[in-house]
Design a protein that fits this description.
By secondary structure, this protein is an alpha/beta fold. The protein has 17 helices and eleven strands. It folds into three domains: 159 residues, Ferritin (Up-down Bundle); 278 residues, Vaccinia Virus protein VP39 (Rossmann fold), CATH 3.40.50.150; 40 residues, no CATH class. The N terminus is likely disordered.
């Protein structure tokens, strides 16, 4: 098995943090101590940012170091004296450490309205081992950030890395908050969200927004050119997203509180330019019976047993006149005829909204073995009445025995394929990609499985004549048959020697 030389499971610094933080677990479930570890990373981050600015103001000598307006002007959270990391660090090995951290979180929330009700305040609970908690506080205290680069970036990457490790630890439950970074990167590289409104209606811990911000940075754009909107129904996940985005310096509107996207849309009037999402796969019992007449079901009423096309239609509803969608869907949505899904898919295809479909390889998720595809929709398609199909099932590299990752070259190949398709310069590649007219999709009963359209890659001719190959193969087969007879005779002899005969 080939292992990737560099992957998200091998970053060094983040790995050390995780190893040390893992000491904290004791008898706590991963889901329990997640908020503890992520909460400490966040507290250290905002304290570091504050301290840097504080020192700068002290050096100016004008006495503004306790003026919260000075910090707000630079988008830095104000940290009151009793909540600063130095106070937490001093108390690391006292019985009160849990209470001091909880108090620090409360004080920070009080001073920064954006964080109200977001931060974890469960460090004092008895089941959390205070000796171990003190050890982890020491670890964060001793981090020499300058050795590893900008503290925002480092703590941001650490936060992201710990999220992925929690996803691994929690298995199936993790799908609620984590989408593998390589999948998100693929969506972002194809959609290219340089400016406009970015929306994720099932935002988890905010990975789509983080990768969008990274994309903009890589292309020398300005993060202020995008505005971010999201929603999530899980209260813990919603809080994680708020912290994740705050560490990254991303201003976001994730709604007033966590809420069900179908029943309590936090952005009812939003028309987004880029919508990216990895909603729960094949969600059943999502409440379809109470939403039969909903304005969002323009292409057909989604079945109560599966929310895949409810998610898709929700996103289309929120799309601006020039908007694009990139979403992850279970492969069943490509071909299902159950509960009217075939009709909904047909109507969406006939509306010429689908730009392309990418079939992904297996084992990309910690959480599920369900094969998935990426769907790309666009209200302003450059290639009208056509769909691009990409079969990426053979891409990616196994980075552990169970986990595959798309490498940078894989992601680039997929993004470049879309670029060429939009430019009108793409040539079909058997076994990998094909541009297909809607009329030909109609002939396939509006089924969108890429394998139907891209065909099988041609095997390179090895130059050996067919007759020669057959002569060699039949000779080898004859030898194998002879060996088989010899073995059969030997077995009969051995059995006879102990009094058994094969009839």
């Amino acid at each position: 098995m080939i292992m990737a030389k560099q992957n998200t499971a091998d970053i060094g610094f983040e790995k050390e943090i995780w190893k040390a933080a893992d000491l904290l677990r004791g008898n706590l479930d991963a889901s329990e101590y997640k908020s503890v570890v992520l909460g400490l990373i966040f507290l250290k981050y905002i304290s570091d940012k504050f301290e840097t600015k504080y020192q700068e103001l002290v050096n100016n000598g004008e006495g503004f170091e306790e003026d919260r307006d000075e910090y707000m002007a630079d988008n830095i959270f104000f940290v009151p004296q009793e909540a600063r990391w130095s106070v937490v660090a001093k108390a690391a090995h006292t019985p009160e450490i849990g209470t001091i951290i909880d108090n620090a979180m409360r004080l920070i929330e009080k001073e920064n309205l954006r964080l109200k009700g977001i931060l974890p305040k469960n460090f004092a609970r008895p089941e959390l081992d205070k000796r171990r908690l003190g050890d982890v506080v020491d670890l964060f205290t001793n981090i020499q950030m300058k050795e590893h680069g900008d503290s925002k970036d480092i703590l941001g990457r650490t936060y992201e890395y710990c999220l992925s490790k929690f996803a691994e630890a929690e298995g199936k439950l993790a799908g609620e908050f984590y989408t593998p970074a390589c999948i998100v990167q693929t969506l972002v590289e194809v959609l290219k969200p340089y400016h406009g409104r970015v929306y994720d209606p099932a935002c988890g811990s905010g990975g789509m927004f983080v990768q969008s911000a990274k994309f903009i940075e890589r292309h020398q754009g300005n993060i202020k050119d995008i505005s971010v909107y999201g929603q999530d129904s899980n209260p813990t996940t919603w809080k994680m997203a708020q912290m994740n985005l705050a560490i990254r310096g991303i201003e976001a509107d994730l709604g007033k509180f966590n809420a069900d996207t179908f029943f309590d849309d936090q952005h009812p009037t939003l028309k987004a330019d880029f919508i990216m999402a990895n909603p729960p796969f094949n969600l059943s019992d999502w409440g379809a019976d109470k939403l039969q007449d909903d304005v969002r079901w323009k292409f057909g009423i989604p079945p109560s047993g599966n929310a895949n096309f409810a998610w898709l239609q929700h996103m289309i509803h929120h799309l601006s006149p020039k908007g694009k969608i990139g979403m992850v869907l279970a492969n069943g949505a490509l071909s299902s005829q159950t509960g009217g899904e075939g009709t909904i898919r047909e109507n969406i295809i006939k509306a010429d909204l689908i730009e392309g479909i990418v079939a992904l390889p297996s084992q990309l998720f910690y959480t599920t073995g369900i094969p998935v595809s990426l769907w790309f929709l666009n209200r302003e398609k450059k290639q009208k009445d056509k769909i691009l199909f990409v079969a990426a099932r053979n891409m990616g590299t196994m980075v552990t025995r169970k986990l595959r990752e798309l490498q940078e070259a894989d992601i680039k190949k997929i993004a470049d394929t879309f670029d060429k398709y939009n430019d009108g310069t793409l040539e079909n590649e058997k076994g990998f990609c094909a541009v297909v007219a809607l009329g030909d999709v109609a002939k396939q009963d509006y089924i969108l499985t890429p394998g139907r359209y891209v065909g099988i890659a041609e095997q390179e001719d090895d130059g050996i004549p067919f007759q020669e190959k057959m002569d060699k193969l039949t000779t080898e087969l004859s030898d194998l048959f002879a060996q088989s007879h010899d073995l059969e005779d030997e077995i009969r002899k051995q059995l006879a020697s102990i009094g058994f005969t094969i009839k």
